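Example for tutorial group B:
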């Protein structure tokens, strides 16, 4: 049996991306990511490659860690001087975070697994016990609901966007 944590750099990046997508980036996401890898190290002998890839196993651990923290998604602006591009990206990210928060938890989870953890539909299906086609359809619908939410609400960060010099 090979070590599922033999090359952790990419795994850490992708697990953190998933966690940050779910609960917001920053110290809380770092803590959950650390907890995920601590548990993975503790239980690495229980990893079974026949049941999936190391990333899927780690995302499963991260999902449990997130559920235990039970924190809602956060979007905080940091007081940083920046150019207009940074302000635009920040404003867009906040709008996206707010729109994601309006979706059903299942949609949030699917989008987080796909775009936060960068898992394929097949990997998501293995993780959630769904068929690949069902995941693809659910993702398509979730993206449609997210797009509709983004289009229906005016940007909440007009004051930030108007600050440009």
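The residue assignment follows.
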């Amino acid at each position: 049996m090979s070590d599922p944590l033999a090359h952790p750099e990419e795994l850490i990046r992708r697990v953190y991306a998933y966690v940050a997508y779910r609960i917001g980036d920053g110290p809380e996401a770092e803590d959950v990511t650390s907890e995920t890898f601590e548990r993975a190290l503790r239980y690495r002998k229980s990893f079974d490659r026949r049941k999936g890839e190391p990333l899927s196993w780690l995302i499963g651990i991260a999902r449990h860690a997130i559920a235990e923290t039970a924190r809602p998604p956060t979007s905080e602006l940091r007081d940083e001087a920046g150019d207009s591009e940074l302000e635009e990206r920040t404003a867009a990210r906040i709008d996206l975070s707010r729109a994601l928060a309006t979706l059903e938890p299942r949609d949030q989870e699917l989008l987080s697994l796909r775009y936060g953890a960068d898992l394929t539909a097949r990997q998501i299906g293995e993780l959630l016990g769904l068929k690949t086609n069902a995941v693809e359809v659910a993702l398509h619908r979730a993206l449609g609901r997210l797009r509709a939410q983004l289009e229906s609400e005016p940007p909440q960060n007009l004051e930030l966007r108007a600050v440009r010099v």
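Confidence is low (pLDDT under 50) at residues 71-81, 158-165. Compare this with the pattern of hydrophobic and polar residues in the output above.
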